[in-house]
Amino acid sequence: MLSLIISLLSGAVGGNLAGYLIKGINQGTLVNSVAGVIGGGLGGQLLGALTGGAGVGDAAAGMDLGTIIGQVAGGGVGGGIVLALVSLVRSATKSG
């Protein structure tokens, strides 16, 4: 459960940070946060599956520093990626 919370919070931070740093994908704080939370959950789960480590919600694996750093990284990157995808979709629907 703790790894899920870490991934979701990291995703929200990652989405907002990506929106702040890359002005072209900034969708506002609310959309950045929601996209980040979704991406954080997906990113944390994917990273855990790819590395063979703890996935989101995997209580049996324990929480060591490496797992926490992995969840933060996966969540943050996932949040930024989902925000970029949301930005692409929203700009495509505005143009068309």
State the secondary-structure class.
Answer: mainly alpha
How many H/I helices? 3
The shape is: elongated
Largest sheet entry: none
**CA gyration radius, whole angstroms:** 14 Å
Report on this structure.
- The structure is a single chain.
- The protein is mainly α and about 100 residues long.
- The protein has three helices and no strands.
- The protein is elongated.
Indicate the topology.
Layout (H helix, E strand, L loop, with lengths): L1 H20 L7 H23 L13 H31 L1
Helix pairs in contact: 1-2, 1-3, 2-3
Structure characteristics:
elongated; 3 helices
In short:
With 96 residues, the protein is mainly alpha-helical.
